[in-house]
Design a protein that fits this description.
By secondary structure, the chain is an all-alpha fold. The chain contains six helices and no strands. Helix content is 60%, strand content 0%.
């Protein structure tokens, strides 16, 4: 093992530390997608006026220990993974995809999720999984 290699430490999935890391990953992803604060809140299942909650997550506070929120975060990261697989040489397209009109979905993917909530999130994820043959 190289001297500079990090030692991996097991983290309990529902722990405060794991939820803090998840908050950091998801808020960074939502910013890469260039979503409005209201859209970011909607994708996480928060009220559209939850600026302070989003700000706390951005500053390192862990995601709430809430099944719906944690499931949404997992699906958003799954969408990101699919986009990176589908567009491996075009990171900009992978990040813009959520806000581009999609003929098959009938709207921008972010609008599908905002309009249909958790079911819209699942629909977008299933669509991408299908596209990549998963």
């Amino acid at each position: 093992m190289r001297a500079t290699a990090r030692k991996r430490v097991a983290i309990e999935p529902g722990s405060r530390e794991a939820r803090s890391r998840l908050a950091a990953m998801v808020t960074k992803l939502l910013e890469h997608w260039n979503l409005t604060t209201a859209e970011q809140a909607e994708l996480l299942g928060l009220s559209s006026g939850s600026r302070s909650t989003l700000g706390r997550y951005r500053s390192g506070e862990p995601l709430a220990d809430n099944r719906d929120l944690l499931d949404r975060a997992g699906h958003l990261l799954g969408i990101h993974k699919s986009l990176r697989i589908l567009f491996p040489h075009d990171r900009d397209l992978a990040y813009r995809w959520m806000t581009k009109a999609n003929r098959r979905l009938g709207a921008r993917p972010v609008d599908v999720i905002v309009t249909h909530g958790f079911e819209g999130l699942l629909a977008v994820r299933r669509y991408l999984d299908f596209q990549r043959g998963a």
